[in-house]
């Protein structure tokens, strides 16, 4: 197949390009080389791919990119919590408008192949929680009044008792808690609507916390693993917010790339939304400690308290659907991958 990969110069997109090429597919990549993500054209780009440089919102760029493609892996997004709400226009432009432009171009050429979307677990908001008395409950955003008192755990909304976090499945109602999350959910809606209206298949892959080689360093738009890694390289202790016991699922980028390959090659009748994760959640403090232990003489992480309003307490994945529908299970456990990540090349 000839596969279009958007965001093809990025952290995840470039690894998807490599995976598709290694599997024998022809790849055309498109990337705007956004200055928030790239200082220069990355040196790791695969020379076996064809590249179109420019913004998906540019009609000429997107028409060239979609010409003759049989499938699309849409990785391009502005990611992370960013700085503050002033980023909202950039997030909507780069995530929502660019996705709409891509899908409109596919519509114009009567595309009938599969669209795979790089989704995100951020659409869930808080994860799944169980109360001993009331069973599975949904929790609201944690109010400032509790966070200011360092009351990190959300209580049962019915009785106020402690809750136990559980793996969240794809059927949980979405509840985006920040601008980035809202745009990722909008991307899902656009892609699935396109699939219904064009009688074609779509796959929304809700990535959990992706890490690995080629992550950008020293930027507020990078993931927490990259932020901690950059601090350690500078000889600084990683600063862990809250009490460090918030739980996440850290999944290696090689596993994410393989999930995209499986989604592209899946039965054409399949349309699916599924989590892409390791299935082995750990705390943020455990992640920081594992990274720090891999640096000789590095300072231990510092738990500094404090919080970001857009953050949630616990969210980690049920991985059963990806295993059952796509045949995907992660190959790199966090305890191995994070140690390797300590010395992996990052993008400047």
Describe it.
- This protein is of the alpha/beta class and 348 residues long.
- It has 10 helices and 16 strands.
- It has helices spanning 11-22, 59-66, 88-108, 144-147, 179-197, 224-233, 253-265, 284-293, 320-326, 334-341, and strands spanning 2-6, 26-31, 50-53, 71-74, 114-120, 128-131, 135-137, 164-166, 202-207, 209-211, 239-240, 247-248, 250-252, 272-276, 282-283, 302-303.
- The strands form 5 sheets. Strands 3-2-1-4-5-9-14 form a 7-stranded parallel beta sheet, sandwiched between helices. A 3-stranded antiparallel beta sheet has the order 7-6-8, with no helix packed on it.
- Helix 6 (224-233) runs parallel beside helix 8 (284-293) and helix 8 (284-293) crosses helix 10 (334-341).
- The chain is globular.
- The relative contact order is 0.15.
- The mean pLDDT is 93.
């Amino acid at each position: 197949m000839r596969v279009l990969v958007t965001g093809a110069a990025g952290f995840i997109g470039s690894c998807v390009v490599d995976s598709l090429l290694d599997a024998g597919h022809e790849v055309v990549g498109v990337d705007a080389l956004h200055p928030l993500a790239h200082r220069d054209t990355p040196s790791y780009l695969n020379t076996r791919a064809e590249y179109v440089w420019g913004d998906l919102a540019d009609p000429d760029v997107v028409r060239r990119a979609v010409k003759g493609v049989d499938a699309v892996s849409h990785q391009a997004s502005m990611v992370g919590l960013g700085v503050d709400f002033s980023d909202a226009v950039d997030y909507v432009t780069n995530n929502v408008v660019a996705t709409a432009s891509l899908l409109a171009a596919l519509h114009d050429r009567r595309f009938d192949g599969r669209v795979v979307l790089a989704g995100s677990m951020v659409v869930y908001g808080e994860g799944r929680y169980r109360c001993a008395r009331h069973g599975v409950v949904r929790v609201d955003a944690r109010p400032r009044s509790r966070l200011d008192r360092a009351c990190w755990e959300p209580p049962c909304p019915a009785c106020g008792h402690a809750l136990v976090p559980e793996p969240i499945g794809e059927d949980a109602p979405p509840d985006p808690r920040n601008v980035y999350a809202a745009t990722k959910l909008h991307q899902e809606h656009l892609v699935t609507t396109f699939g219904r209206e064009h009688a074609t298949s779509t796959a929304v892959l809700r990535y959990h916390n992706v890490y690995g080689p080629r992550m950008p360093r020293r930027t507020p738009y990078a993931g927490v693993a990259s932020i901690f890694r950059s601090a350690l390289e500078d000889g600084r202790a990683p600063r862990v917010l809250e009490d460090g016991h918030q739980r996440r699922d850290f999944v290696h980028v090689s596993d994410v790339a393989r999930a995209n390959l499986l989604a592209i090659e899946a039965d054409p009748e399949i349309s699916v939304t599924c989590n892409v994760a390791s299935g082995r959640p750990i705390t943020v403090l455990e992640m920081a400690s594992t990274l720090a232990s891999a640096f000789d003489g590095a300072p231990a992480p510092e738990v500094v308290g404090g919080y970001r309003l857009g953050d949630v307490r616990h969210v980690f994945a049920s991985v059963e659907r990806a295993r059952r529908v796509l045949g995907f299970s992660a190959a790199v456990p966090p305890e191995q991958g994070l140690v390797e990540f300590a010395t992996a090349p990052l993008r400047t």
